[in-house]
């Protein structure tokens, strides 16, 4: 897997969102797989120290287990999105099962959002980036926006923190959507790389926004 998404892929799958607005000097940090004790609260503290906003794509089962951390994400001004109930691989899952699993996650997410976020604003990111076109269409019928990415940090891979850092800074530009993971698997790289990324782009005059 490569850190960036080729342009032809974005063109073929243009009904999915790959980047944020590029008309200002902002990048869009996203965090998948939480909320997780220790990891997600640490991420929130790092973001707060740089006045950064981000988007968290949450697994429904983790929201169910850790609602207090999920509510803290929202209370601190970040956006949340759906990452299925238990991290399904769309390529290996039937469309009816995939949709039901995602709707189950939405029910848990909305239950824990004060005032309940309107479904038409629902963000969805497919685990592993693997989703069938039919699954995309079925979710879009249910008012989901399918959010992909422009840069994958690969923090969850067996790479060095330096390589993870370079994956981000070598490719980021205004509008880039960058994927990190607030998970135990990614924790070793994340704790070394996220503060450096926040500092690096702050010095360059970037802001960090949610989708």
TrEMBL record:
<dbReference type="InterPro" id="IPR050248">
    <property type="entry name" value="Polysacc_deacetylase_ArnD"/>
</dbReference>
<dbReference type="InterPro" id="IPR011330">
    <property type="entry name" value="Glyco_hydro/deAcase_b/a-brl"/>
</dbReference>
<keyword id="KW-0378">Hydrolase</keyword>
<feature type="domain" description="NodB homology">
    <location>
        <begin position="25"/>
        <end position="209"/>
    </location>
</feature>
<dbReference type="GO" id="GO:0016810">
    <property type="term" value="F:hydrolase activity, acting on carbon-nitrogen (but not peptide) bonds"/>
</dbReference>
<keyword id="KW-0479">Metal-binding</keyword>
<dbReference type="InterPro" id="IPR002509">
    <property type="entry name" value="NODB_dom"/>
</dbReference>
<dbReference type="Pfam" id="PF01522">
    <property type="entry name" value="Polysacc_deac_1"/>
</dbReference>
<dbReference type="GO" id="GO:0016020">
    <property type="term" value="C:membrane"/>
</dbReference>
<protein>
    <submittedName>
        <fullName>Peptidoglycan/xylan/chitin deacetylase, PgdA/CDA1 family</fullName>
    </submittedName>
</protein>
<dbReference type="GO" id="GO:0046872">
    <property type="term" value="F:metal ion binding"/>
</dbReference>
<dbReference type="GO" id="GO:0005975">
    <property type="term" value="P:carbohydrate metabolic process"/>
</dbReference>
